[in-house]
Amino acid sequence: MSDPTTQSNYDEVYTEHVSLIWAIDWEAKTVSGEAIHDLRVKVDGVAEVIFDTADLDISKVSVQDEPVTYDVKGKHPVMGSALHVPLGNGLKAGSTVKVSVLYKTTKDCTALQWLDKEQTKGKQFPYLFSQCQPIYMRTLAPVQDTPSVKITYTAKVTSVLPVLLSAIRQSPPSDGPAHGGKIVGKDLVEYSYHQPVPIPSYLIAIASGNVVYRPFPKYEDRNWTSGIWAEPEMIDAAYWEFSEDTGGFLRAEEDIVTPYRFGVYDLLVLPPSFPYGGMENACLTFLTPTLLTGDRTLVDVVAHELTHSYFGNGVTHAHATHFWLNEGWTTYMERLLLQVIHSPADRGFSFLIGYKSLVDDLELYANQPKYQRLVIEFEKGEDPDDAYSKVPYEKGANLILHLERTIGGLDVFLPYVSDYVNTFMGKSITTNEWIAHLYAYYEKHGGPEKIKALDSIDWDAWFYGEGTSLPVTMDYDTSLATKAYSLAERWDASRTTEVSKLDFKSDDLNDFNSNQTAVFLERLQSYTPLPSDLLAHLGSLYGLSTTHNAEIRSRFYLLALKDVASPAAPGFAASAANWIIGEGTGAVIGRMKFCRDIFRAVFKVDKDIAVKAFEKEKMSFHPIARKMIEKDLGLA
Ligand code: BES
Ligand code: ZN
C-alpha cells in the first residue's frame, strides 16, 4: 500500500534534494521564496510530477529553468491541493530533472505559528516556529510530503532575527554570535544551512526569534557537538535542566546501536505554545518549556527525541499505518537509556506511567476501535492526527519489551537492535519488512529455538487487537511507585475524616520527584472521587493548583474535575481553563497533552466555561492545537 496521506506520485518520480530560498516577512507573517527540487525519474516516460501543497500562494513554476503551465487542484480537507507540473516527453528512468516553484505561505499555513512579542519570554521580539509532522510540510513548501521519500536539503533564509533549521549551520557560524554580530531585530542576515543526510519532509523545521546558544560539554572521543538554544531569559534554566544528561544519553545510544550520523545534536526550548513535548527535527530537537521543572525529572523527553535520530530519522516508517515503528521503538529505547543511565527501577516506573496513559487513550477511542490498533489501515485522505494517541507509543514499546523478554533478555536482544538499525538505516519501511528482518536475524543467530520463541508471540493480537488492554499482562518494576501508592491510600482512607483532624503535612511530597507526585495523583484518580473539602485541602496543602510544574498541575485538575457532579467542579473548571489560556501570564499552555486533556475535562463539567475560555485565546494556540481542540469541543 502506498502512503494514504499524500497525493504525490512519488513512486514514479521523486525528490532527491531540495534547495529552499526563503525570506521571513515579520510584518506580513509570511515566508516567501523558492523551492528548487532535484528530481529522479523512476518510471520511463513519466509525464508530470505531483507535489503536495496546502494553502500556498504559487506564482511561477519552472522545469529545467523554463517556465511551464502548472495546475493546482482543488483542496482536499486533509491532503491539501495537489500541484501538477508537466515534465515533457520521453523522460527515462534514472534521469534527473529540476523543478522550481516560486511561492509564498499564507495566513492559513498550518505548520507555522507566528508569535507576537508579548507571547515570548523576553517580550521584545516576535517569534516563529514550525511543526511539520505528520503532514504539514506541504503548508510551508511544495513537497512530496511522505516519509517514504527521503531528501537532503539546503536552505538560505533571511530574517532580522536569528534563524534555526533542522540542518547544519554553515553561516553565520553557530559558535559565534547568534545573529552573526548584527543587530537582533533590525539587521537582515542571510542564514545558510545544509542537511546532507536524507530525511523525510516532516523533519524539515524552522524557528526564528531572539535565541542564544550554549554548548554542552564536549566528549573528546565523539565527533558530534551538542548544545542548547533558548531565549536569553531562559538559557540558564534550560542549560541546567538538560546539560547533565543529553550527551550521556547520546553516548549510550551510540554504544548500543550505532554511531550518530547527523554531526550536531542541539536542543531548542520554545515558547509555551509549542504543541508537543518534543519534536525530533533533524539536528535540532524542539522542546516545550514545560520540561523546565528545575529537577531534571523530565529528561526522558530528551532521551526520547534523540533516540528518534535512529528510530524515525534513520529508519523511517513508510507511512502513517506504520507510525508505531517510529514511536513504539523510540519509547522502548528511551526507557532502555533510562535503565542504563539511571536505574532499572526508572525503566519500570516509566512503563508504569505509560501504561496508565495507554489505558486512558484506549478508553477515549471506545467508539473508534480502529484507533486502538497498533497497525492502523488508513483510508486515503484520513487525517493521521485523528489517530494520534499513546497507542503507537505504549502498545509499541510493550510489544518490543515483550519481544526482548521472550527472546531471552537484553544480551541476545541488543545485538539484534543494532543489526535492525544498521540494516534499514536511511530507508523507509513497513511493519512487514520489520518482522521479516526480525525472523531472518534470529534464524541466523539462534535458529529453531529462537524462531519458536518468536512464533509464541501473538502478532495478530499485538498488531490488530482492539479493546482497552494489552494482549499480554506485563510486569514492571514498581519500586519507585510504592511510596506514591501508599500516600494515595492514606488520602483515600481519610475521606471520612474532618479536614481539621487530618495529619497530612505540607512536606509529605518533599522526597518525591515530580514523576512520583504525578503517580500519586494518578493513583487518586483511580479511586472514588474525594469529597470537595478534602480535595481543596489536598490542593492547597501541597500547592498543586499553583505549581508551575504542568505535569503535576494538570493531573491535579484532572483529579478535581473527575467528579463532574461535585459542587467544587465548576470552580476547578474555571481555574483549570484559565491556567491553560495563560490568564495572568500572557502565554497559553499549548502542549496538546495538557491543553486538550484539560479542555476535554472542563468541557464535561461545563461546556460554556471550556468554549468561552478557548474562544478568548484561540488565536494564541498553534494552528494544529487549535484544530484539534476545535474538534474536541465540537466546534469543528
Ligand atoms: N514525533 C513526536 C511528535 C509528533 C508525533 C508530532 C506525530 C506530530 C505527529 C515526538 O517524538 C514525540 O513523541 N513527542 C512526545 C514526547 C514523548 C516523550 C512521548 C510528546 O510530545 O509528548
Ligand atoms: Zn516520538
Mean pLDDT: 97
DSSP strand content:
15-25%
Helix/strand structural class: alpha+beta
Number of strands: 22
CATH class of the largest domain: Mainly Beta
- Calculate Rg over CA atoms: 25 Å
Widest sheet: strand ordering: 5-4-8-2-1-11-14-13
Number of helices: 18
CATH-assigned homologous superfamily of the largest domain:
tricorn interacting facor f3 domain
Low-confidence segments, given as residue ranges, are none
Q: Give the distinct bound molecules.
A: ligand BES, zinc ion
- What separation lies between the terminal Cα atoms? 30 Å
Most strands sheet: 8 strands, mixed
Shape-level CATH architecture of the largest domain: Sandwich
The CATH topology name of the largest domain reads Immunoglobulin-like
Global geometry: globular
Write a brief caption for the model.
The protein has 636 residues and is α+β, with helices and mostly antiparallel strands. It has 18 helices and 22 strands. Helix 15 runs parallel beside helix 17 and helix 16 packs antiparallel against helix 17.
Q: What does the secondary structure layout of this molecule look like, with pairings?
A:
Blueprint: E1 13-25, E2 30-41, E3 48-53, E4 56-63, E5 66-67, E6 71-72, E7 81-86, E8 96-105, E9 112-115, E10 127-130, E11 150-159, E12 163-165, E13 168-171, E14 189-200, E15 206-208, E16 212-215, E17 225-230, H1 235-243, H2 246-256, E18 264-269, E19 278-279, E20 284-287, H3 300-307, E21 316-317, H4 323-341, H5 344-364, H6 391-407, H7 410-424, E22 428-429, H8 431-444, H9 448-455, H10 459-464, H11 482-493, H12 514-525, H13 532-541, H14 550-560, H15 569-580, H16 592-605, H17 607-617, H18 623-632
Parallel strand pairs: 1-11, 17-18, 18-20, 21-22
Antiparallel strand pairs: 1-2, 2-8, 3-7, 4-5, 4-8, 6-7, 9-10, 10-15, 11-14, 12-15, 13-14, 16-17, 19-20
Helix pairs in contact: 2-3, 2-4, 3-4, 4-5, 4-6, 5-6, 11-12, 12-14, 14-16, 15-16, 15-17, 16-17, 16-18
The structure holds ligand BES and zinc ion.
Ligand BES is lined by residues 133-134, 276-280, 301, 304-305, 308, 327, 388, 393, 593.
